[in-house]
Batch of 4 targets.
Target 1
Amino acid sequence: MIELEQEGGISARHQRYQTNQTTLVQGMRSLGFRTLLNDDLHSPIITSFYSPEHSDYQFKEFYDRLKAQGFVIYPGKVSNADCFRIGNIGDVHPADIERLIGAIKNAMYWELS
């Protein structure tokens, strides 16, 4: 509760999470990824992205490459779509999301079309 108060309360934290999510989506789209949901359905909590439509792509390989750089993503278990999820909350700030986008770019071993 002290950390929440120091951050400026619920609305300030919500704004940070929203900024994280917007930064994430913009960065992922710049790398060629597509979101599972339309923008008007996004929440600041977690964002799902379609898996790349490339024959070389394997979630585990992508996961392992990101984990080696200090980031963890989640498989898409909430729909029948081939996707993965990235959390936008916790002690995560926009600079962390920007580092994540760089790590994702480094982890890509396939070419997106």
Target 2
Amino acid sequence: MRISTVTMFEQSLTSMNRQQGEFMKVGQQLAAGRRVVNPSDDPQAASRAVQVSQSMAVTQQYSDSRVSARNALSQEESVLDSVSDAIASAKTLIIHAANDSLSDADRDSIASELRGIYETVIGQANATDGNGRHLFGGYQDGSPPFFRDAAGNVDYVGDSQVRQQQVDASRRMPVSDNGITIFQSVHSSAGYVAEADAGNGGDVTFSGPNVVDESDPGFGQGYRIEFQVAGGATTYTVNGGAPQPYEDGAPIRAGGVSITLDGTPADGDGLTMDRAQDMNTDLFRTFEKALAVLSEPAGTDAEKAARDNTLSTVMREFDNSLDNVLTVRASVGARLNELDVVDAVAGNRQLNYTETLANLTGDLSQPSEFAAAVSEYTLRQVGLQAAQKAFVDIKGMTLFDRL
């Protein structure tokens, strides 16, 4: 059998090309740090590696989303902390203003300080984040959610919804609370609030109301107390019922709720006591009532009684508003804690993905794997050099060299 010179050259060239291809393949693996560089290296592993990489990318996106959610919730918590401090300061001023030894000028000074706190709360209610979005406007976060009209009343013009964000595959978390929830609501556990009629002519003041029996069939309802004075006798009715004799300083009980009245009522005077949810729940309205009564001098006994009753109502409303703000703040804290838990779970998931991907692609970061790859690289290099040497030797095998 004759073997032509062309055949020997082609076989030698094919061998060199094969050895060079293997050598370059191992070099690419070392440079990339993994054994599977191209899908052709291991089609099944490459396909699974793509899926794992996509899962890692999705997990990272959720991680970025949690960073944004954490920033928003942290800003809200900071604002709520300031609001709760402001309400606590307002309560301190109201307690001080209820001191009978103060003059009207003293109370006017307290009103000035209270107005400053009021303006601070309005500013906090219209607070924005680092991107200029208003925190408490719901989805309408492009403009201030609280607007003061010409009469000085503060109205909410934001959205009743709350902004939510997908922080994990199965968790869509609220990253803010709307202004109604924070500044115009009270917690469901808030008790009763009493408020005297604005036009009362007597000097009756109240303390309470206090819950004494939640099992009473009438508990949870609202009650209207009205006074009648006729023939020197003073009576009262509850929700238009039968008249009962009024006794100064004696508690009046209705539906498991007790309220104590002191003073002498005038004919037609009245007051209402009801669940806090059905009375004034607007924090701004509470500030306005307090400012109005502290700014006006009280000369008569009826005016002083009206001031004391208003301050008593305002104090109860401030208590309810503070409880509500603290409850919302606790909810924000719980969501921040949940983000930490989700972060920990996602971190473990990401580590599992990384380990799986390393196993699929043949990660060379381990010393043993790297040493094996270097050994193979050296072997392929020797093979290529041998093929090149063989080609040089075969090229020299010609009769023309003997002439």
Target 3
Amino acid sequence: MALNAQSYTAVVAIVGTRPLTQTFTAKFRDTPAFVYFVIANAIAAAYNLEVLLIRRLILRRRMAGLVVHMLDMVIMALLATGAATAAAMAELGKNGNVHARWNPICDRFGSFCSRGGVALASSFTGVALMMALNLLSAASNAQCSPGQ
């Protein structure tokens, strides 16, 4: 999504026999929801990479494992909200809003919408995997807890 951009040139008027054209560009930076989506995924990727690199050092202590589990849940929530906001804007771009008189743009920026859709599908897959990992982590922490 961070590299997603597409231009579209349209004829806006004809002066004599010469058409006047206007170039329109769709970029992910034009929509705050897409910017939030990219930032949320970047934070999650950096966090997960860091945890993978220092996992052996952290998980030797039980309390540190609990902190990592809690941070994993925060990251999952961050990913879910980023994907949800981007999905809402993608739906608006695809179908528009008749009541607000916002026209859809995917008929003109097809590849922009297609790449955004792939990014969204990948992100929702990542959210599902994070949820599965969180459930496994919770089950692992429950089995390791003393006094049961």
Target 4
Amino acid sequence: MRGGRMHEMHYTCYWDLLSYIPSYDDPAVSIRDESFDFNKRFVSNGQARLLKDGKKLDVSSYGLNIKQQVAFLKLTFASEKSLGNKKIEDWFDQAFFATNFWNIWSTMFAFQKWSSVAEMRRYMRRFIHLVEGLPRLGGVMRTKYDQYHSVVIPMKKYLEERGVQFQMETEVVDIDFDLSSDKKTATVLHLKDKNEIVLGVNDYVFITNGSITESTDNGTWDKPAKLKGIGESGSWQLWKNIAVKSPGFGKPGPFCDNIDLQKWYSFTATLKDNTFHDYMENFSGNVDGTGGLVTLTDSNWLMSFVIARQPHFPNQPDDVKIFWGYGLYPDRKGNYVDKTMAECTGKEMLEELWYHLKIQDLMKPIMDAGKVNCIPVAMPFVDSLFMPREIGDRPDVIPQGATNFAFLGQFAEAPKDCVFTVEYSVRTAQIAVYGLFETDKEVMPVYDSIHKPASLIKAARSIRG
């Protein structure tokens, strides 16, 4: 697993879409209904959200002083246009980045100090109703299995049954457009194998410009993951080729030209043993699937990990347990392993974790018996969507004058919504389809919790606490 997406009940576009798709296990039950039922039975209530020196920290207070509380409120109600390409560290003082709030916020959403403060503002406004429960991950929802099995496979099956053809191993490297003063029309797709697809009058093109999982590389138990870049990236190169043709096609540079500020590393551990999961259940007070993200605040890598409800994969044997983790600062040396996270093998990443939790002696026999595997993953663009940017750097979903094409995903502009979410992906698709075709449907509105007094009051009390 490269990661897992957190959900919440007010993903209106996402849950509406999944209400039509039969679930992986039962064709009579939609993915939406399966997910809502699953989250009624396994409610997020993390009791070990932040750790230091292997012990649980008190997160009953966010630890914000008056000055930081004022800065938080000012940002919430500032206009996005006024923020330009400012960074979060341009808005808050340095002490802010040592608070419980920042440790919880940054690791939950993967923000960095140098991330866009405009994106942080969107998150604060969009998820203000969750602020009270963030220390225990209250309101966070997950799918029954990993999202590939719970969402992607059922959706692909649904589409194939309706005649959709998926042509994999086919890379589009450029697109020709007929550009006039008032119209923009896609005309030809150029493929890597030198073939072309000439677009007819009834052909439409939906372009995912940029990708946070591009150029991913997997290491092994005894080999580090390799950091790749633009050279191995199809979607970023495609966007760069498109962007030079019209100002309305956005600017990929701010999002992809600073890999050292965008990358982080994750890992998946597979254990043929219950020892670690039993330890964490007793230590945290959470059965698997109810605890969520655990962050080691004294980790040089700022390492976090998640134990999902087991089994996390439909075909996972009863005697196999898995968990996932990641580090926001992969270029720093470990506290215990004398290497940067980027240089570490899967084995070394786990050793660093065991030492932080003070369970290295407990886990050594399991490691020596070969009952553990760990796959490190390098993701050079995973935080690219949070990079400081100006209005217009992300193209509109349907650029002005576009007749037969649209942009989709995290690097197309959907006003008010938050980029690092599955909701954003579905919302941009709704904007595209409802804008290009006569459907008699309107894009579902973003959940407007910032204008709900009860949410504001609860959030204000939490920030002051």
